[in-house]
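Researcher: Please translate sequence to structure tokens.
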Amino acid sequence: ATKLFLNKESSKMLIQVGDTIAIYSFDQKKIILKQQLAHPPTSIVFRFSNDYVVLAYADGVIELRDITSFHKVLKKYNHYDDENEYADAEDVKQERATDDDVEGEHVGELKQNVHNGIIIDVTEVDSVPVIVSGGDDGMIRLEKLVEFA
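Model: Translation complete:
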């Protein structure tokens, strides 16, 4: 997959070719970053004036990086980690299910093992920047960016 992301505020363009990321600076008229990632991201946000990049991966991992020190991950979490918060409600549902209820038996297993990646965006809620992520689990997660607060 090849994608281009233009950041008008910082006059830079991020180019993704598979698992390789390159950033071209229109001000400097050259490529200022070229980095190969362990896995290709499924979603990227590159709209910050202060050169932050948000990357999301198929397994639900979301990373916030600064292009000036791209190898260092400023914030990292997994969109699917908080599924455990809903485990009590899921346990109640499974207790009510009968032994021959195949769907009830496999719900927890499917939630943890089958993910098709996530989609991310960035917005503000009450003047606080947040990463919005949505996955195939049906949940939308907001993660506060303390780096901007």
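Researcher: Any highlights?
Model: The longest strand covers residues 118-125.
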